[in-house]
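RECORD CONTENTS
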Amino acid sequence: MSAAAARAAFDTNSRATPIPVRAWRVAVVIFQILAIWLAAILVMPWISRSRRDRMIARFADKMLQGLGVRVRIRGTLQDPCNPAILVANHVSWLDPHLLNLVCRARFIAKREVASYPVFGTVVRQFGAIFIRRGCIRDAYRVKSEAAKSLSSGERVAFFPEGTTSSGNRINYFYPALFQAAIDSGAIVQPIAIRWHHADGRLNLDAAFLGDMTLVESIVLLLRHRAIYAEVTLCEPVEAVSVSRRNWRIGRAQRSRRSSRLRLLRRGRGGCRGRIMRGIVRGMWSLRVRARRRRRVDWDDAGYCSRLAKI
């Protein structure tokens, strides 16, 4: 059998999910959504943060299992008790659930999410920080709130691309929110997310793109017997040590590992290099602007004017 025929047969088998299995998965997903919605309203306001974190991780695990997602986590957090900013590439609406399996964090989400039925209530109770995209002044507010959370020992997570992609490339990383790591002295934990088939090929059905609705995305996911997600914890970046010289050294080291840092469509773990470069470049650009201010404190308008030039 040729490679093309084998690939076609694999696609046919992977999408031939029996109707009873699809119905069971839909029922599980609906039950989990209703359960966490009720828990967010009746339970979460009255329990401790540690119990709430365990509840969120358990909900994420059940949701992924209900959709047939098989998760593989590569690597571990070096300092699980220390505050950190988790940053990752963004492909699917299930990406936050993957990060919740790694560790609990406060997510930075677009403001429109707060108005979503059911999900808006859940996300608000999870402690999300909402940002109005395209507003520099609001980015300053979110940066300050994230830095405050980091200073109090919490973790913060966001997707610096600002949107989703098909997973075969890493988009531009917007650097403004990395200032929170610099202000609080927290580390930045890069995470690479890859959705793929059993044979390692990229799974484009997992991508949540454009005007796609949640129902359409769930229908695509249910067509597969199993969906594979690989979460790779890359080497953390110290925000206080980012400089132009370190960036050049890191660039030389990464060039020697270029064969292992290809795009996702060419192999496993290929987005790690681009994620690391985007993070370091974003924080370095902010530190350069900080050094140029000549010890003058940034007020609201001054900070916003500088962010507008990034």
In short: Strands lie at 69-74, 84-88, 106-110, 129-131, 156-158, 187-196, 227-233, 237-238. Residues 1-14, 243-269, 292-310 have pLDDT under 50 and may be disordered.
